Amino acid sequence: MSEGLLEIDDASFDSQVLKSEKPVLVDFWAPWCGPCRAIAPIVEELAEKFGNQVIFAKCNVDDNPITPGKYGIKAIPTLIFFKAGQVAEQITGMVARAKLEEAINKVL
Fold first, then answer.
1. Upstream peptide bond of 77 is cis (omega within 30 degrees of 0)
2. Which of 68, 85, 106, 107 lies most in the core, judged by the most C-beta atoms within 10 Å?
């Protein structure tokens, strides 16, 4: 995993995401998910580009079922942008890099 990405779990979600000063993009994923693996390099590139403005995090839904359940995640990959502890934007499925950049700029 890229050094620009934070690995979060159910226990650290509140402190690392909801209480963050910066906006946080959380990539909910699983190792067996093809589209999750396909979108991962795009998320890593965006973490390098926007890392000083946005925190990029990954949450493995197999290991951490509570948080995805709380946010009603039924399909992966799901990327949720949190700002000031609230959901600001949500994208489900494999999408183009341009769509993710657009969402990041909107949240900023």
1. yes
2. 68
Paired residues of 28 in beta bridges: 59, 78
Q: What is the pTM of this model?
A: 0.95
DSSP string, the chain: --TTEEE--TTTHIIIIIT-SS-EEEEEE-TT-HHHHHHHHHHHHHHHHHTTTSEEEEEETTT--HHHHHTT--SSSEEEEEETTEEEEEEES---HHHHHHHHHHH-
Neighbouring-strand partners of residue 60: 29
Which residues are part of the catalytic machinery? 33, 36
